[in-house]
Amino acid sequence: MANEVEVKKKKVISVDPATLSAVEKAVEDGVPLVWDRLADQEPQCTFGAKGICCRICFMGPCRIKANKPDSVGVCGANADTIAARNFARMVAAGVAAHSDHGRAVADTLIAVAKDEAPGYEIKDEQKLLQLALDFEIPIDNKSIKEIALAVGEKARAEFGKQEGELLFLKKAPLKRQQIWRETGMAPRGIDREVVELMHRTHMGVDQEMEHIMIGASRTALADGWGGSMIGTEIQDVLFGTPVPVAGDANLGILKTDEVNIIVHGHEPLLSEQIVAAAQDPEMIAYAKSKGAKGINLGGICCTANEILMRHGVAIAGNFLQQELAIVTGAVEAMVVDVQCIMPSLPNVAGHYHTKVITTSPRCKIPGAEHIEFHESDAIPSARRIVKEAIDNYVNRGKNVRIPKEKHTMIAGFSHETINYLLGGMYRASYRPLNDNIINGKIRGIAGVVGCNNPKTPHDEFHIKMVKELIKNDVIVLMTGCGAVALGKAGLLVPEGATKFAGPGLAEVCETVGIPPVLHMGACVDNSRILMAATAVVKEGGLGDDISDLPAAGAAPEWMSEKAIAIGQYFVASGVYTVFSTAFPTLGAPGLTDLLFNKFEKITGGKWDFVVDPVEAARKMIAHIDSKRKALGLDKKKERVLHDMASRRELV
Question: Does 249 lie in the same domain as 234?
């Protein structure tokens, strides 16, 4: 087949052969996809893209003309105020989404502790005990379930807290905590910050862009060091802290002779039970009675990352492949929960036999079947869903074409796992990483995260950026759909270091036995990157704050409000953070200058926007080099052979 599939605008849509093959089939089947809908929307509104369209009240919508500095909306708001309010509302929505995920996980821990969630158990007792210590909960003479109940209730209380500070802020370096307090960015309670930010950005309230951005930062931090961190930590308690595991990724994981079930979304509460149900001998026997050889489970988006790193369950694809999994004609059921789920799925499924099943009380989609899931009856719900998929197997037609591509990837590099791999069981430590940054074998650290966006060739920006980084000896930490992109490209295996990394990074990876790109989990697990950065600071030798580290962050194919919230909490934590594709403040020069330049004086971190992913990587490397210089690591130390007299002087 051709090297590229083009739609309407003659645009290359992906660098992934499996995606191109499935798109070609969709064209043959007459199925419109996300790229077709994007083409129908073009040209898109440039006012909205630049953040200078205001819909907050209905004296508008108002559009600010970028070439007229004195242009204002009906109420008198200028471009900077309008863009700041829009940006802040994106932060609030993103924080609400990620943090609501964390709340659901805390609720589940409480239910498990009360024996009200059959099928769930506490799988990492050690981490539970550590959380109890973090929350200052006494553990003497208490059972594991009593401790779990106390931890769950303390975690849930963080959402409604009205004063003080979030408890996990204490995990950050001391200097960072001081910066947050001095700037007024220390979050009080998760829900309180979201509500206040929505209030402040209502028509006629907060007008000053810097003040709005301080509030946006406080809200974002309530996610990164609050809701998301709670979600990650308690998921580890319930489902096990991830350790490195191998699994396959891409549409080629689907099977022609088995019942194919795709789980898609972000919360692993249901998918954990579907994994169990799909492996139940009774369910497998039922599938065989329908003519299938077995049950094949795969994931899309961050649910995929969750079940891969804990069970080795294969990944069918990332965000832009969700429609294409159905287009193969081989999927009996796509089971979705929340976030990043396209409303188009039932329409695409209408061309095939696939059932789309929504499961969350927060989400219904027109045309999809709804089987509501609750932790109290998780096992029956999961078995019902799997049974419906099996029953649908007999309806599979002959219009089946599964791309052959699939690639092995290693996932599950939690903060604890990295600590262990670097230092061993008895001396777990980040010291080897710090030492190799200091001696220059590793130039620095990059966190590359985020979604896919049909405005960029699918997966290309992730792959180009990361290849440029590791070629220059920058080790990369990844989460979410970006991690899946790199897995499909062969960079999430140790052999990737030999093939793609610079000599220093390759040597370290070969010695430790790790890939040059470490899969750290789902997008909610970006808190793991924060914890890794904090561990590097606390290990010593690289400054006393996250902002001192030779480190940078990026989201080259971002598209969601969650991405803006994540980016803002990284910036507010002291990280230089680069986005590509688009940036929602470019029509407001004052706000853009604040975020891209002046904000660094406030938080030690700042935003940047670079369209080309290789150029963006080079700017990240330049930033890393500037931090190395500030730490005095830019000068090569001469090798000195000491005689006995000079050795005595060193003592």
Answer: no
111 and 190 in a common domain: yes
Report in angstroms the alpha-carbon separations of 249 from 254, 320, 447, 486, 641: 10, 14, 21, 10, 51
Overall domain count for the chain: 4
**Rounded Cα distance, 246 and 582, in Å:** 34
Give dist(CA 514, CA 492) in Å, integer.
9
In eight-state DSSP terms, residue 184 is: T
Question: In angstroms, rounded to a whole number, what is the distance separating the alpha carbons of residues 22 and 201?
Answer: 43
The CATH number assigned to the domain holding 318 equals: 3.40.50.2030
Q: What does the pLDDT read at residue 428?
A: 72
Question: pLDDT tens, 527-583?
Answer: 999 999 999 999 999 999 999 999 999 999 999 999 999 999 999 999 999 999 999
Q: Hey, is 198 helix, strand or coil?
A: helix
33 is in which domain, residue-wise?
A: 6-54
**Cis link prior to 589 (omega < 30° from 0)?**
no
Cis peptide leading into residue 61 (ω within 30°):
yes
CATH number at residue 147: 1.20.1270.30
Grouping H, G, I as helix, E, B as strand and the rest as coil, residue 573 is: coil
The pTM score is: 0.93
Residue 639 lies in a domain: no
Q: Which two tokens stand for residue 315?
A: 């990944």
DSSP letter at 75 equals T
pLDDT digits (tens, 9 = 90+) for 408-418: 999 999 988 88
Q: Which tokens is 426 given?
A: 């008895």
Among 374, 395, 416, where does a domain finish?
395
Tell me how far CA of residue 68 lies from CA of 64, 126, 525, 539, in angstroms. Answer: 8, 60, 42, 51
Residue 1 has pLDDT above 70, yes or no: no
**Residue 407: is its pLDDT beyond 90?**
yes
Calpha distance 185→178 (Å, rounded): 10
Residues 615 and 515 grouped into a single domain: yes
Instruction: Say yes or no: 222 and 282 in one domain.
Output: no
Please return the burial class of 612, using the count of CB atoms within 10 Å of its CB with bins 0-12, 13-18 and 19+.
Answer: middle
Q: What is the DSSP string of 499-530?
A: HHS-HHHHHHHHHHT--SEEE--SGGGHHHHH
Looking at 345-494, list the stretches that DSSP marks H as alpha helix, in order from N- to C-terminal side.
345-349, 378-392, 415-423, 431-438, 460-471, 480-488
Structure tokens at 508: 């370290």
Residue 503, number of CB atoms within 10 A of its CB? 9
Report the SS3 class of residue 409.
strand
Instruction: Note whether 11 and 100 are same-domain residues.
Output: no
Q: Return d(Cα 296, Cα 472) in angstroms, integer.
A: 39
* Mean pLDDT computed over 133-142: 94
In 393-459, where does DSSP find H-type helix? 415-423, 431-438
Q: Considering Cα of 123, then 129, then 131, then 132, what sign does the dihedral take?
A: positive
The token duo for 607 is 């935003």
CA-based torsion, 46, 47, 51, 53: positive or negative = negative
Identify the residue whose tokens are 């590229």: 4
State which H helix or E strand residue 407 sits in: strand 407-411
Quick: pLDDT tens for 435-456: 999 999 999 999 999 899 999 9
Give the Cβ contact number of residue 156 at 10 Å: 18
